[in-house]
Every structure is written in C-alpha cells, then in structure tokens.
Design brief:
By secondary structure, the chain is an alpha+beta fold. The chain contains 20 helices and 14 strands.
Length: 579
C-alpha cells in the first residue's frame, strides 16, 4: 500500500518555519556586525567597546579591571556589613536588569555595569584580589540598582542622539587622518562671519573700579613689560585674502575696527563654526599681546555647572529658567581708543579696500584712527585693521564683559544676594536666583509659573536702557527643559550632560584608546570638556592625575604614545550627571 501524500499545509508550515529561522539568522548577523560600526544602530555596542578598551589597557587600572571581571558571583558566605558599600562585588544574575531587556543585550549591559563597579572599587583602593568580596548586603543591592539606573540613563542618552548632531561637536583632528591640523577654520567665507550691525554701542568702563579704569586707558601701564616685536605676527593665507578683505570692509562699516599705519601689537584671526548655525565666530589670536599685558582679575562671579547641584527641585516644585543672550556681545563693548593700536590684525592695502571691498578713498581716510591720510602707492601701502571693540581673544575681555553684564543685571533689580556663582555663598531658601556667564543670563525659580518671565522682562528693559542688543532667537521663557552653560536642565528636576555631548565624548575617548597616540593638545580638548561636566560632581576631578601630567603643556601638538594608565576611559564610563 503506497504511503499517503503529505498534506500541503504541512509543507507551507515548514517553509514558514524555515523563513523565520533564516530571518532570525539574518537579524542575528546584522546585530553582531553592528558592533563594528562607528555609530551602531544599537548603542549597547558602544558600551561594550568601552569595556573592551578598559580591559585591554596595560596600566594598573587595566590589570585591576581584568582581574575584577574574572571574579565569579559571590553567592555564599556572610553578606557585607550593612554600612559597608565597598568593596562591592560585581553584578550577577538579573540584579539590576531593566524590564524587557533581551538576554543578549543584558549580558553586554551587565559587563558595562561591572566595569563601572570595577572603577569604583579601584578608586576606593580595593586590593587586586577577590578574597575581600562578600555577598551583597541590602545596602549594596540598593547601590547596584542605582548604578544600573544611571547606566540605563546613559544608554538612553546615547540612543536619543543622531550622527549629525554628534559630528558637529567633534574636533577636526578626530574626523581626519594624518598630522594634526592647524587651528584655522576651513571654508572661510566673509558673509558667514557674525558681525554686529553697529559695534561699540556700550561703554563698559564706568562699571569698573577706578584703578582698573585708569589702567585700561593708560597702555604704557597695562603693557609696561611688553617685549619688542609684538607688531610682527603671522600674515594671512593667500587663498583667504579675498574673503578677508570683504570681511574687513564689513567690519569697517559696522565700526568694529578702524585702520592704522603704525601699530604696537597684533595677531592673526581665525574663525570657529557656531553650534547649530552656519555662521562663524571670529576670534583674535591675542595670546602674545595678552601675555605682555598686566594679568587681569578673574571674571567676577562667573557661572559654571558647579553651582547647579545646590539648586533644589522636585516633581512637585520644578525648576524653571528664563535666559537672555547678548548678540555678538564683545562687538558691542567699546574699547578704549588708547588700546586700539595694540589689537591689530593682518594688514590690507588701499587698493584692495577700494577694488575688492568697494570703499571710496575718502571712506578709507575716515576710518583712519590717527586721522592720517591714506597717501602713497595704493598697491603696497599697508593699513592695519585695529579693534575698536573688545576683541574675543584678549585676556581682559572676559573680565570686562562679565563685569558689564553684572551691572546691567543690577539695574534690572537682580541683586548680588540672589547670584549663583562658585566664589560666593549660595542664595538661601527657594527665592529666585540668577547666574551670569559672560554674555548669557539665566534666571531660576521653583516658584509659580511666570516668575522667571517677569524677572526676564525687567532684564530686557535694563538691556535696552544700556543700549545692549539681545539675541531674540535665543530667548528662553520659564522653561523646564533648557541648556544652561552647556548643561541640560531636564524636566525641571535635574541637570546632566546633553545626549549629543555624551555621544561625542564617548566616541572621542574610544578614538584615543584605539589610536593609542595623541598630542597633549588633543587630549586637553577631551579632558577640558569632561572636566566641565564633571563640575556637576566635583569628586570626579580627582581621577585625572596621570592625564594632568601628560597635558602639562597643552600647546604641544606632537603626537606621542598615551600613558597606559590614563584614566579618561574610566571617567567616560562614569557618566557626568547631577548626583
């Protein structure tokens, strides 16, 4: 008797089962290959990459991490003392596992969490042995769950940011190969440089102390130790000359600069891309002139992230903030006329100003700060653009700018006893407070909605009376989510590093680990950003001792082997966050 034919629906079911198996196989291979992407779709691979980099280090920290991660779970024996959080045994089982996280992702995430635990134990001074580890106490389980929550928050931040958001924050040396690039902006176009419509509208000198005013209007005292040769400096790149002349013309018409035959000091200019904008920010290279000047006082009461942990907020009393930003702030601050010849830029010729810039000879003569006539061969006559407003790049500019904006805040009724700064006592109670960061004012309150908006309106009036133009596009009114001096206020309850910064810092740290070589200047760029966010948790600043030695000369641009025991990797795994 012949065998019964197999029903057709079984064949279809087998095909369906095979298709599902093939799909699972493809998804598995795709997930595994994703780990090698610079921007993996599943950002858990970035955390896995950090773990790999840490255990592959040759220094003491790398050896400790390798030893610690080989420890099996401590299941038996007496638990740790109730009050002892360290030494802390590693995560095991499903302790701290986020709800719904797949097993494969949990294993990678748990390895990252155990690297964090290893780093904390290393900082605690735990010996490189597992004999001191005990079963988790209830207090230690609480600590581990908190570490897991912080780690999950970090992972969520990485998943919220796009590649384009991250790339604008990456330094040029991290996105190119070969020797370190020079600090000159690429794609320099005069039309992209931000220039105030009318410069020098505010005089900051009256808000300064009398002895400071006297110093700033007497250059022979300010630059009494100036060495010879300050009037000799680097010239302009030939390929940038056409655009430079166009920019000089714009700045002459805006009264930002004047022209002079003879100068006492000067420097090159370079241009930095602004975040979230195609515009460029001009920076005058005033390092030599600044070094020759009397050192300025520290900018008074300058805001930084270190003051934010002292602000109290909760879900029932959320922190709100209003912000005001001065547009091209330093361009608006008039420079004492006596200092202009010390703030020169690369020269241009009369011929270039007329033929390229479109100026008439009488307009050029009107721009001469010494009242001289533009006589001589117009093709070879050198005219130096000199600053008529405080240049960004001179050592005294930050002090002057901060002092002037504080005086404007005082005119608005924002008094010193409500000021947030690390050099004065924190304002008591829940009353509104404010912080000033050179050209940016932030007003905080946990009071009723609209409290900060009313105070910001008073500040608007004071800025108008002082002829200080604000950047209306940057106004923030009574928000619970905002960026304050680079730090994100989130939902009115906490401050933390923005997701884009978390991603860029993580990629930079991984890049340093993979290359193994970098210049002190490059490492200092990464370290400086890490330290800025570490001001939210100042104890983290103590872990950089080896890095401090490597970056002792932050102007050194020669790439060399990184020390095996540098702790930037360990810092990256401890995300900066408000405790």
């Amino acid at each position: 008797m012949s065998a019964m034919p197999r029903p057709q629906h079984w064949v279809g079911r087998e095909r369906s089962r095979a298709s599902r198996s093939a799909l699972r196989r493809r998804l598995w291979f795709r997930h595994r290959s994703d780990r090698f992407s610079v921007f993996p779709a599943d950002r858990i691979w970035l955390l896995a990459r950090i773990c790999t980099a840490i255990v592959s280090r040759s220094g003491c920290y790398g050896a400790f991490a390798r030893s610690f991660l080989q420890v099996d779970s401590v299941a038996g024996g007496a638990p740790a003392a109730p009050r002892d959080h360290f030494p802390l045994a590693p995560f095991s089982g499903d302790l701290g596992r986020p709800h719904g996280m797949l097993t494969m992702r949990w294993r990678l995430f748990r390895d990252f969490l155990n690297c964090v635990v290893a780093g904390l134990n290393y900082l605690y001074g735990m010996p490189m042995t597992s004999s001191s580890l005990r079963r988790h106490s209830d207090g230690q389980c609480f600590v581990l769950r908190r570490i897991a929550d912080k780690g999950l928050d970090f992972l969520n931040r990485l998943e919220r940011v796009s590649e384009s958001e991250t790339m604008v924050l990456m330094p040029l040396w991290a996105t190119t190969t070969g020797p370190p690039p020079s600090p000159v902006s690429a794609n320099f176009k005069a039309c992209y440089v931000d220039v105030a419509s009318c410069s020098g509208s505010c005089d900051p000198l009256p808000c300064l102390e009398g002895k400071v005013q006297e110093l700033l209007i007497h250059p022979d005292e300010l630059f009494k130790s100036a060495p010879p040769g300050l009037n000799k400096f680097e010239s302009l790149n030939v390929q940038d000359r056409f655009e430079y002349v166009l920019l000089v013309t714009r700045q002459l018409r805006a009264n930002k600069i004047g022209l002079a035959y003879d100068i006492r000091g000067g420097g090159q200019t370079f241009y930095l891309t602004k975040k979230d904008s195609p515009m460029l920010r001009e920076v005058w290279h005033g390092a030599r002139v600044s070094a020759a000047a009397v050192p300025p006082p520290c900018p008074p009461h300058l805001a930084s992230p270190s003051v934010f942990p002292y602000l109290e907020a909760s879900d029932s009393n959320k922190l709100r903030v209003s912000q005001r930003d001065a547009r091209t702030y330093f361009d608006q601050l008039v420079l004492p006329a006596e200092l202009s010849v010390w703030m020169a830029r690369p020269p241009v010729s009369l011929h270039e100003l007329v033929e390229v810039g479109g100026l008439q000879p009488h307009e050029v003569r009107a721009c001469m700060i010494d009242g001289g006539a533009a006589d001589g061969d117009e093709h070879v006559l050198s005219l130096f653009p000199v600053a008529k407003s405080w240049p960004m790049g001179f050592s005294w500019s930050s002090f002057v700018g901060q002092s002037f904006l504080l005086s404007v805040c005082k005119q608005a009724g924002l008094e010193r006893d409500a000021l947030l700064a690390s050099d004065i006592p924190t304002p008591p109670g829940t009353r509104p407070s404010f912080a000033v960061a050179t050209d940016d004012v932030m007003i905080f309150s946990t009071g009723p909605a609209g409290t900060t908006t009313a105070l910001a309106a008073r500040l608007d009036d004071a800025m108008a009376r002082a002829n200080l133009t604000k950047h209306e596009g940057k106004d923030v009114n009574d928000a619970t989510d905002a960026i304050c001096v680079g730090v994100a206020l989130e939902d009115g309850v906490k401050f933390a590093a923005p997701p884009s910064r978390c991603m860029s810092l993580l990629l930079l740290v991984l890049l340093l680990a993979e290359r193994g070589h970098a210049s002190p200047s490059e490492v200092m760029q990464v370290l400086g950003t890490l330290q800025w966010f570490d001001l939210l948790l100042r104890l983290k600043l103590s872990v950089y001792d080896v890095v401090y030695k490597f970056t002792a000369d932050d102007t050194d641009r020669i790439r060399r082997r990184l020390p095996g025991d540098h702790t930037i990797l360990g810092s990256a795994e401890l995300p900066p966050n408000d405790p």
